[in-house]
Design a protein that fits this description.
elongated, 4-stranded mixed sheet
């Protein structure tokens, strides 16, 4: 009988302290604020305020809150929400990367190599690859890589992007994003055949 009273008292104390916020949360459920730097959205050509609203619209599976500021978008997320965002970003990136690898014009030669840290990507294709798809590879994929870096706490995101000629294995261009403007010329493609 006495043991039941002790357990009942402990249960009541735990419930009371939980209601007061005195019981610590688990690390997985503790929200933290993360800055997605404005440079990511500048690189992508999108508006910070609109992006903050888009994050809010994702709902509680992805964010607790989102707000726009001069320095970027502040997200309040739990560990689970952060992982959900990264998984979502990776799914979007994989769509563009699969298009590259599966493109019929590449005849099995188009490829990519992504560093484990997500700060370096090498594409292998030729000048016949769709210009529209190339834009996705040089803007959209690095944007998602930058978002993932920011979600991991990196505020000065960067991606080294290299394009290789899939026929010769020679480099067409290497760009350090977002510091450099992503561009390459017909002359650079020609040199990669020499």
């Amino acid at each position: 009988m006495r043991g039941r009273r002790i357990w009942a008292a402990l249960l009541c104390l735990t419930v009371f302290l939980s209601a007061c916020g005195a019981v610590p949360r688990t690390p997985d459920s503790t929200p933290e604020e993360i800055l997605l730097p404005a440079s990511i959205f500048e690189f992508a050509g999108t508006d910070v305020a609109e992006e903050a609203e888009a994050f809010k619209e994702l709902g509680s599976d992805y964010v607790t809150s989102a707000r726009a500021a001069e320095e970027g978008v502040y997200l309040t997320v739990t560990r689970e929400q952060r992982e959900n965002l990264k998984e979502r970003n990776n799914e979007y990136m994989s769509r563009f990367l699969e298009r590259l690898v599966n493109d019929e014009a590449g005849d099995g030669l188009y490829a990519y190599e992504l560093s484990e840290a997500g700060d370096r990507i090498v594409y292998s294709f030729d000048e016949q690859y769709s210009a529209w798809q190339q834009l996705f590879l040089i803007y959209t994929v690095p944007t998602y890589l930058g978002l993932n870096q920011a979600l991991d706490g990196v505020t000065d995101w960067s991606v080294s992007l290299t394009i290789m000629n899939c026929h010769t294995g020679r480099e067409v261009v290497t760009m350090n994003l977002p510091e450099e403007i992503p561009e390459y010329t017909e002359e650079e493609w020609e040199k990669s055949y020499e």
